[in-house]
Amino acid sequence: MSTQSLSTQAFTAMLPFLGAEVTATQGAARVVILPIPYEATTTYRKGCENGPAAILDASQQVEYYDEELEREVWPVGIYTHEPIADTRENPVTADEMLAITEQTVAQLQADGKFVIGLGGEHSITTGLVSAYHKAATEPFTVVQIDAHGDLRHEYEGSIHNHACIMRRVVDMGLPTVQVGIRSICQEEADLIKTKNLPVFRAREIAMQPDWMERVLAAIQTPNVFFTIDLDGIDPTLIPGVGTPEPGGLNWYSLITFIRRVFEAHHVLGCDVMELAPIPNSVVSEFTAAKLVYKLIGYQALAKGW
User: Fold this and answer.
1) Are 182 and 247 in contact (CB under 8 A)?
2) Radius of gyration of the chain, Cα coordinates, nearest whole angstrom
3) For the segment 55-65, what is each residue's pLDDT rounded down to a tens digit?
4) Under CATH, to which class is 20-303 assigned?
């Protein structure tokens, strides 16, 4: 745990994940944290463009030792990339954001890096998934943790709205599994029925003890991409999101499920999206930073790093 912090400053600079003293070089790193502070289509609470910096700031307070895995995880090699598609100071179009995201992730993947994208709004995920899709030699499933279906064809005049990300994934022809869903519109409900999409709703998860087995059975490809919208988690744990919904996964259900997916499948990459920091509160960003460290730890366990 580093003592370095920017908690009293504006989230403009980007600290390295966990702290400079445990940061690997890009060449030596197995894991690359990719901040993407892009925001253009949020529709309720604004501020997710400040999410990546807030998570990186909070990560300075995360203990290096993971008590579940009984080890320090940072020696696997973690490098924090410079931010891309940064709308905090300059406008960035959706097409520009998607192009630079896809290009950057494609290069990192070609270099053998495990990439964790930090958003920013959820529309960013299209760029990450597209990079893996174009490079894929085997099919993969996009596993989404989210409060919302995000299956609209377009919203507020844009097909790259944050409410449309999973529709773009479906349009790529990729299988999807959605977990924690508790808010959809009629269009999304119709699409789910028409395409028989596997959706595991939060209310079902709360009442079905075997929900993890059912979700794992629905993932029918060896490879997985994980996209985590933080509003999929109970808002009492992470209130700092743009579109909160009551209910959602609790912390231990969340990390148990994620670990089981990492153990059963090859996880290509991950993203953690939609943190919108709340002034004078750090619980949301700290929980998000802890989650990112858990993702790294589970990948290290799966890979034998």
Assistant:
1) yes
2) 18
3) 999 999 999 99
4) alpha beta
227, 270 contact by CB (below 8 A): yes
The DSSP string of 200-264 is: EEHHHHHH-TTHHHHHHHH--SSEEEEEEEGGGB-TTT---BSS--S--B-HHHHHHHHHHHHHH
Please list the alpha-helical segments (H only) found in the chain: 51-59, 94-110, 125-135, 165-171, 186-195, 202-207, 211-218, 251-264, 283-303
Question: Which amino acid is residue 230, in one-letter code?
Answer: L
Number of residues that make up the chain:
305
What is the structure's pLDDT at 228? 98
Q: Which of 105, 108, 146, 147 is nearest to 129 (CA)?
A: 105
**3-class SS of residue 296:** helix
Query: How does pLDDT run across 80-94, given as a tens digit for each residue?
Result: 999 999 999 899 999
Determine the Cα–Cα distance for residues 189 and 6; give it in Å rounded to an integer: 43
Long-range contacts of 197-201 (CB under 8 A, 24+ apart): 197/151, 197/170, 199/149
Q: CB atoms < 10 A from the CB of 236, how many?
A: 12
Give 75's DSSP letter.
G
Q: Residue 4 above 60 pLDDT?
A: no
- Hey, where are the domains in the chain? 20-303
Sign of dihedral through CA atoms 95, 54, 165, 268?
positive
71 φ, ψ to 5°?
-165, 160
